[in-house]
Write a structure and sequence with these properties.
mainly beta, 5-stranded mixed β-barrel, two-stranded antiparallel ribbon, 2 helices
């Protein structure tokens, strides 16, 4: 199973019937599947801020489009399964840093640019005295997870040299089927930039691994909505302040677990969870505002503060 934009619209229906999942690809005006085009990405760096009660986040996201030949050297070996390797000449590296309320985290995700499939995810977090590093290497039938922490006497050692930890292989649910191409929530920044999501009702569906659970994520365009923005835009070394109302593309995010034994999906995006809506700039294809629920605070908003264009 894979996900691609077909013509001007793409939709996928999952039917669970007699213990089987049937994948139905919707009609294509182009008549064939089209790969994503990484040249449509207009930005290199984005910065966001959000705060409400006990919720606070500063997030910075960067993207690099790299030759796949060089990316392969960064991918760890999935010894318990055949790892997913780049299939096209280019791959994307997304680097997300978040901080707030005494914690900070670094997430790096390697993607295939033509399909949006996740190749590898690395996350490193620091909270008080706790330091952890996780590497998820995506494979054909599951994910090989490597967990690392500093062993005794390694507090000053670089994270890549920590020796404490373990690893395990998590197999995808049988109902997910064969040839599963899984993405990752950070990849939303890339997919929103390249997917054909314009008119009301346009949809994109794809499987995502989030917090060790496999789920089907659906992006649906719910029309346009004017929102106020106030951020710095940098281009060719020149900065300008953008302060105006923008008729943003409103995209609703829904997630359903693929494991029938799971009670609910737990998709998190920029520390938001549930009722997530993304307001996309129709020209730059940049998320201007992300809204969602946070524990004990209700609905919160994360807003763009800086955009660095290519």
């Amino acid at each position: 199973m894979s996900f691609r934009v077909r013509g001007s619209r793409f939709w996928v229906t999952w039917l669970i019937l007699i213990g089987m999942i049937v994948w139905v690809a919707g009609p294509s005006t182009a008549g064939a599947e089209d790969d994503f085009d990484s040249s449509l990405v207009t930005w290199t760096n984005l910065s966001y801020r959000g705060r409400k009660l006990m919720f606070s986040i500063h997030a910075d996201i960067g993207i690099e489009i790299l030759p796949s030949a060089g990316v392969e050297a960064s991918l760890v070996e999935a010894t318990l399964g055949k790892g997913i390797d780049p299939t096209g000449p280019l791959s994307a590296l997304l680097t997300l840093t978040t901080r707030g309320l005494g914690s900070k985290a670094l997430t790096q995700v390697w993607l295939g640019t033509e399909t949006g499939v996740a190749l590898q995810r690395l996350s490193q977090s620091e909270k008080s005295s706790r330091r952890r590093r996780k590497t998820y290497r995506f494979a054909e039938t599951g994910v090989h997870m490597f967990f690392h922490h500093p062993a005794e006497g390694e507090d000053e050692t670089r994270p890549e040299n920590w020796t404490g930890g373990n690893n395990r292989f998590v197999t995808y649910p049988e109902l997910a089927g064969d040839d599963l191409q899984v993405s990752e929530s950070t990849a939303l920044f890339y997919l929103l930039a390249v997917a054909d999501l314009e008119a009301s009702g346009d949809q994109l569906e794809f499987p995502v691994l989030s917090r060790e659970e496999l789920m089907l994520v659906e992006l649906t365009v719910a029309g346009r909505e004017k929102i106020k923005v106030d951020y710095i835009q940098e281009s060719n070394g020149r900065e300008i302040r953008i302060k105006r109302s923008v008729p943003a593309i409103k995209i609703l995010v829904d997630a359903q677990p693929l494991d029938p034994d799971s009670e609910e999906a737990d998709l998190r995006f920029l520390r938001l969870k549930g009722n997530i809506a993304i307001y996309l700039d129709p020209e730059l294809r940049v998320p201007l505002r992300i809204s969602g629920r946070v524990p004990f605070a209700g609905m919160a908003h994360v807003r763009i503060r800086r955009v660095v264009l290519k």
